[in-house]
Amino acid sequence: xxxxxxxxxxxxxxxxxxxxxxVLVLGLIASYEALTHExxxxxxxxxxxxxxxxxxxxAHLPDDMRATAQEATDDFARKDYDAAAACYQRxxxxxxxxxxAWSNLGVIxxxxxxxxxxxxxxxxxxxxxxxxxFSRTYLGMTYYQLSxxxxxxxxxxxxxxxxxxxxxxxxxxxxxxxQKGRQLDAEREFKKAIxxxxxxSDAYFNLAVVLATAKPPDIxxxxxxxxxxxxxxxxxxxxLEELLGTETHAP
Length: 251
Description:
It is a single chain. This protein has helices spanning 20-26, 37-51, 53-58, 66-77, 81-94, 99-112, 115-128, 133-145, 149-162, 167-179, 183-196, 201-212, 219-231, 238-244. It is mainly α. The chain has 2 domains: 10-34 and 186-251, Serine Threonine Protein Phosphatase 5, Tetratricopeptide repeat, CATH 1.25.40; 36-164, Serine Threonine Protein Phosphatase 5, Tetratricopeptide repeat (Alpha Horseshoe), CATH 1.25.40.
């Protein structure tokens, strides 16, 4: 089940160069990597089983709900998010403390753009599981999308303290730090995200934005990171390319 191919990269609308830095920083989070139920949750729960058996037990999918979960997987593959969410709600009706169902429901709501629904579900997860990094990452991402930057920053820092090896948490933390005007700290987090996952385009793109809009800007390095983002599947951003120079129009 595609678990969160989230919204495509936001277009940075910039009318004049004077406001380019502000708008780019406000639009740092531009896309979400395609995540799948299998890739995201399976990997997560494998880590839990190895590191935190008690949490893994709470996150276990009850055997009598596996058919319902598969139905949700099929619905999500068709992008029928409401139907997928309804499946997880059926699980929760029988198992109201199912961390697995609440986590899936939260990410489904996030993927569908229902940020308030995502927030409600993920806050439930966080309350249920003080040692759950996954839900904190997605709740931090949700807070970010709601422009609740202080809460996003705090939640992502908690997630990283629980799982310092998660690249997405570092990437989103970098975006939060940039929103707070902490550009050097943001740069550090984007580089950490790249170190942890060199295949993701998001951190390369975000680092390019930070470097291009710094005072003074580092256009050479920004161009290099932007090109690497393109190589990893990022969409061309004409406004950023205009800032960086026409030679950044790479294939």
